[in-house]
Amino acid sequence: MQRPVKGKTPRRQAQKKTSNTQKDPVGVYCRVRPLGAEDEECCIDIISSTTIQLHAPDGIKANRNGEYKETQYSFKKVFGIQTSQLELFEDVAKPLVDDLIHCKNGLLFTYGVTGSGKTFTMTGSPGEGGLLPRSLDMLFNSIGPLQAKRFVFRTDDKNGMEIQGQIDALLERQKRESNQQSTLPKTPSSRQKPDPEFADMISPEEACKCEGVDEDSCYSVFVSYIEIYNNYIYDLLEEVPCDPIRAKPPQSKILREDQNHNMYVAGCTEVEVKSTEEAFEVFWRGQKKRRIANTQLNRESSRSHSVFIVKLAQAPLDADGDHILQDKNQVTVSQLCLVDLAGSERTSRTKAEGSRLREAGNINQSLMTLRTCIEVLRENQMCGTNKMVPYRDSKVTHLFKNYFDGEGKVRMVVCVNPKADDYEETMLVMRFAELTQEVEVARPVDRPICGLAAGRRHRNQAFQDGQSQRQEERPGGGGYTEDGSLFNQLLESLPALPACELVDPMDEQSLPRLVEVLERRQRIRQMISEQCTITANTLKSMLQEVEGHVTAKENFLHEQRGKLGEKDRVIVNQRNEMERLEKKSKMLEYKIDILQKTTNIYEEDKRSLQQELESRDQKLQRELSERRRMEARMQGMVTDTKHKWEKECDRRVNAKELEMRNKLWVKDEKLKQLKAIVSEGNSSVTSEQRLAPPPDVPPRPCREKDQRGGPPQKRSASPSSMPGDVFKTRGGGQSVQFTDIETLRQECPTASSRKRRSSEGQHNGKRTDWNDRENRPPLASTSTVLGVQTGYPKRRK
């Protein structure tokens, strides 16, 4: 069977909101907490009521230019260490509570690094109540006598509000009271015994009240308390059944969107409170469940973002001013969110491990998402782009996206710790605050004015007071006597009855006369009644007309007051803008002066460097010209020296050549004498050999052909062919012993012809030991044996 195709859910058409072109920037305030110790180094200076200066402490690395840069940051207002909680509340949170009563939403959150005093600013301590308890106190002081009874307003599951009748509300009150008495019979009421943590937070002289509250409406306050832990939402007011054996972990909640496209936490507990003490008790009950841990930087560090939501429901009274108008469309719901953001921290400083490390990572990630959303909003507003703001990346931004889209005022208190150890984290916080101030949020639209006449509650109260007073003044029949006198006056105005006495029932004279008088009186009474009715109707129409005129005048006055207030706010905003622009102009002028001075210094340096460069160029040119002259002079000297030494070398070569020729001539003469001696010796030896020739010595081959340039003849390796005596060597080879004449023939071929003629047919008896042909000594060795240094043979001694 084929499964049917499931169609997509059609996209819900968004309701068109009333466009409001007027926008207000996000109000960013700065609060500086005191140092923990007097000897700690401070890195923040308060310049004025709106400006602080952040300077790098000792030991921090300089910037790229090698200078310690001091930066100034401007806020809507700066609160120093001497600022009280009351002063901070009057400037920051009091306008938001006023807007809450006048049906406008508000968002107030604290931002800063860990240990900067965010929780103290939001909650406070006994005797120094923070923004949250003071806001609740102001709210109940303003609407205390105007509150509706319990359960007249009832929340539904879709972020809406319903109205119940007096009977249904009474039944539900009785049901709740009975259930509470059965479950907790011994628990005292919070009104009877308030929690000591909040008993003395606000002194009576510091109590404040909102002016201009609509007294023709009934109010009811609902509070809820949630926390965002590891990007999950948990209800801190949810009653979890206690199981001593197996504890049940709390269940996370989800975010949903109502029919007006406002985000809310589905299934969140909303408690109706009627007094400041009761609201404190509910807050403290949720505060005990909030996740707090000890770190290296903060003994009680918040590990989650806490959100305390105050929701105010109000509805107008009916025309009689006695009961609430049973119309759901006339119910107006406004809310104020007080957010205590967890502080950003560096794990290298907190030494967080395990679950603390995971908590720190989720806290930093959610704060980074908030920064990203602010940056995208700023870019869309300043550059005219339409980039998607990543609200859904974090539960914090997703929950409050309606406020940034124009559903209420947004204010932020930047808490700063001035100690030098937090310098880098504080600088990042200042940059985020400076960026947030440039984001503008659309101004919320005023609610429509009810068409009923104003002063209904006062008239109804006056009527009830008059009735009760008359009832008190009526002793028995006092009221009846007064009414009787009025009746008698009315009877006296009628025609008098005739004086007659009836004796007989059949009297025909008295009865007709009496009937005629009574009929006349009846006609007069009817005429008086009709006239009274006409007069009453006329008076009623006149009263209605006057009431309409009064209502129109009141509406006109209210409208004019609204316009006047709008003009006043515009004037205040323009003044603030002018002050901001003046401060910015002064800052820019100061920067321009600094840049001008820097430019002048650079110009002077440039001119000095230019002059130095020109002087060095001139010096270089002089050195180059001097070098060229030196090179030309050295070239001439080298040429002259070269010619001089060439002439000197020629002279010395010629002298040496002449000297060598003389020596050669002397040696030739000596050689001739030596040859003559050798020729005489060879002739005597030849004669002896002829007489007794040795049988073993073979005849020496003639080398005349080799001397004359004939072809070389191959010698035999046999001993009989060697020109001398052959002996066996120790290594197994052979050696030949030549005669002196053979050696002279080989070493001096120029005299081979004379030697050949003088030694032909003779054998020299004197022998000299030589090595083999390959091991013959060079000419220098032979000359040494013969005693001649020039290589020629010398006579032996």
Oligomer description: single chain
Computed structural class: alpha+beta
CATH architecture of the domain at 23-169 and 202-241 and 250-348 and 398-442: 3-Layer(aba) Sandwich
End-to-end separation in angstroms reads 141 Å
Question: From the alpha-carbon coordinates, what is the Rg to the nearest angstrom?
Answer: 64 Å
Portion in helices: 40-55%
Name the average pLDDT. 77
Per CATH, what is the topology of the domain at 23-169 and 202-241 and 250-348 and 398-442?
Kinesin
Strand content: 5-15%
Spans of at least 5 consecutive residues whose pLDDT stays below 50 are 1-18, 184-192, 476-484, 697-723, 739-797
CATH hierarchy, class of the domain at 23-169 and 202-241 and 250-348 and 398-442: Alpha Beta
- Give the biggest beta sheet: 10 strands, mixed
Short account of what is shown:
This protein is an alpha+beta fold and 797 residues long. It is 46% helix and 15% strand. The chain is elongated, with a radius of gyration of 64 Å.
Overall description:
- Helix 2 (about 95-100) packs parallel to helix 4 (about 130-145).
- The longest helix has about 180 residues, at about 510-690.
- The protein is elongated.
- A hairpin with a 5-residue loop joins strand 24 (about 725-730) and strand 25 (about 735-740).
- It is an alpha+beta fold and about 800 residues long.
- Strands 2, 6, 7, 12, 13, 14, 17, 20, 21 and 22 form a ten-stranded mixed sheet that branches.
- Mean pLDDT is about 75; it is low at about 1-20, about 185-190, about 475-485, about 695-725 and about 740-795.
- It is built from 18 helices and 26 strands.
- The chain has a domain at about 25-170 and about 200-240 and about 250-350 and about 400-440: 3-Layer(aba) Sandwich (Kinesin).
- Its main location: cytoplasm.
- This is Kinesin-like protein.
- Keywords: ATP-binding, Coiled coil, Cytoplasm, Cytoskeleton, Microtubule, Motor protein, Nucleotide-binding.
- Belongs to the TRAFAC class myosin-kinesin ATPase superfamily. Kinesin family.
- InterPro entries: Kif23_Arf-bd, Kif23_Arf-bd_sf, Kinesin-like_fam, Kinesin_motor_CS, Kinesin_motor_dom, Kinesin_motor_dom_sf, P-loop_NTPase.
